[in-house]
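2024-03-11 09:14:02 INFO worker-7 job=invfold-0412 stage=load source=structure_tokens
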């Protein structure tokens, strides 16, 4: 059984902490993401293979929602209230470098 929720990437990042950590994030392009990039959160049961629906729509599996949640939590720990654009930047960094982004803090 496959359960899908369709969002923009910005909405998916804002809702990441409330999503099922056993799900996966699918996006419409490899790394040219913005807050408006089409995204799907897909939950499959343990007996299902990789879901074909998002792939048929041209979406790529980017990472697990558990990893997405870690990216969001890390950004919030550093910035307290990161913007959606900063979360997209943190996600891109994580996917490309397999590491959490270190945000530079501006000194008052």
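2024-03-11 09:14:09 INFO worker-7 stage=emit residues=108
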């Amino acid at each position: 059984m496959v359960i899908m929720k369709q969002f923009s990437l910005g909405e998916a990042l804002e809702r990441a902490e409330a999503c099922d950590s056993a799900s996966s994030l699918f996006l419409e392009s490899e790394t040219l993401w913005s807050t408006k990039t089409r995204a799907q959160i897909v939950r499959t049961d343990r007996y299902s293979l990789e879901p074909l629906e998002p792939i048929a729509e041209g979406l790529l599996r980017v990472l697990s929602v558990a990893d997405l949640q870690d990216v969001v939590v890390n950004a919030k720990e550093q910035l307290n209230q990161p913007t959606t654009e900063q979360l997209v930047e943190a996600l891109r960094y994580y996917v490309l470098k397999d590491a959490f982004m270190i945000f530079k803090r501006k000194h008052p």
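2024-03-11 09:14:09 INFO worker-7 stage=report msg="The two ends are 52 Å apart (CA to CA)."
2024-03-11 09:14:10 INFO worker-7 job finished
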